[in-house]
Amino acid sequence: MDNLKRFLVFTLLLAVIVIGALYILQPDFGISQMKVLATEAVCLKDSDSSMFKTIKHDQLKYPVGQLHVPQPWAMKQSRSDVLTVTHWLAPIVWEGTFNTQVINRMYQPLNITVAACIFAVGNYIRLLPPLLQSAEKHFMIGYRVNYYIFTDQPNKVPRLALGSGRSIIVLPFPSFNRWQEISLRRMEFIRKAIEDRIRHEAHYVFNIDSDTLFENHFGAEALGELVGSLHPWYYYLTRNQFTNERRPASRAHVPDTEGDFYYIGALYGGSVDAVYRLTKTIEQQLNIDKQNNIEAVWQEESHLNLYFLEYKPTKVLSPEYVWDKLRGNPPEHIRVVRLATIIKDKKALRPN
Ligand SMILES: CC(=O)N[C@H]1[C@@H](OP(=O)(O)OP(=O)(O)OC[C@H]2O[C@@H](n3ccc(=O)[nH]c3=O)[C@H](O)[C@@H]2O)O[C@H](CO)[C@H](O)[C@@H]1O
Ligand SMILES: [Mn+2]
């Protein structure tokens, strides 16, 4: 009996010691390590640039002695009628401020790929053939281009003969019955496409509205780490007139005493890394608004405007890069219209 008691006490003690040791040391038997790797594969670490193809400024090399270009004159502004630099020293790109030959000599040897994300959902699918044809004439000519077409009708994507180094990639997107939902969900779908493939396939990425047409040169001068575009209806107005979200309940809220410029949701871009962080952040803000039953006045464009106020673009595209045909003939300071939004029949195109 005594022996049995001793045996039971001994076993109990042993069990307590073993469980205690397991609790304190927490050996992983390889399981938690696998879990960590699995999470990392799905959710990229925001700060890890090695996940992305990146071009660093010191990789750009100008070939001395091959071109004869006019000297940039330090005593004369290239444009005196418009602002060409922000007060955080980002260039604002206008015709006359850059030399295409110089830019191409610097960027072309790097064999970069530019991703264009275009959403063509519901009737907007009809807008694709003319848009892609115009892009083949003017968008990033001389560079590799991947058009990522997000659509609910993959078999209606036009099969066009594209220039060399240029391709169309069709990605599924759900049919929503509100155009606002289609517009704002772009953040989530661009974020996912970057995770799934764009980060392996491109160096720069742009979101481009599908109700647009290219009309003139739109090239490597538009590339930058984080690129925003001035909205053609607001660039000449004061910040209290910007159509920012004014309700503090929304995560896109910008008070009317704040604001640098009003940026358009139809065109933004940058390095894949920077656009990944932008889309991921805005997707989170949109989700919080949704949980709180609030939708910002201009959907993701409102959130984009707060984002660009906090994380200033390193390059700003002038309204040459998204002119609106509804504004009629461009004023004198718009010397070139590069991309223009078409005048569309909203009733015929949109689901609501
Ligand atoms: C002049 C003006 O007021 N423009 C605003 C309006 O843009 P837009 O009138 O430019 O919005 P939009 O109809 O172009 O929608 C945005 C984009 O979503 C896609 N799409 C939309 C609907 C659809 O049925 N199928 C489809 O594919 C398509 O890529 C389209 O270009 O709204 C935007 C986003 O909310 C911005 O606030 C714009 O500043
Ligand atoms: Mn549009």
From TrEMBL:
Residues engaged in binding UDP-N-acetyl-alpha-D-galactosamine: F119, A120, V121, Y124, D209, S210, D211
Alphabetical list of Gene3D superfamilies matching this protein: Spore Coat Polysaccharide Biosynthesis Protein SpsA, Chain A (3.90.550.10)
UniProt keywords, alphabetically: Glycosyltransferase, Manganese, Membrane, Metal-binding, Signal-anchor, Transferase, Transmembrane, Transmembrane helix
Organism of this sequence: Coilia grayii
Predominant location category: membrane
Active site: E301 (nucleophile)
Keyword Metal-binding attached: yes
Binding site for an alpha-L-fucosyl-(1->2)-beta-D-galactosyl derivative: H231, T243, E301, D324
Binding site for Mn(2+): D209, D211
UniProt cross-references to Pfam families, sorted A to Z: Glyco_transf_6
Organism ancestry: Eukaryota, Metazoa, Chordata, Craniata, Vertebrata
Co-factor note (free text): Binds 1 Mn(2+) ion per subunit.
Tagged with keyword Glycosyltransferase: yes
Coiled-coil region list: none
Subcellular location as annotated: Membrane
Membrane topology label: Single-pass type II membrane protein
Similarity section: Belongs to the glycosyltransferase 6 family.
Name of protein: Globoside alpha-1,3-N-acetylgalactosaminyltransferase 1-like
Cofactor: Mn(2+)
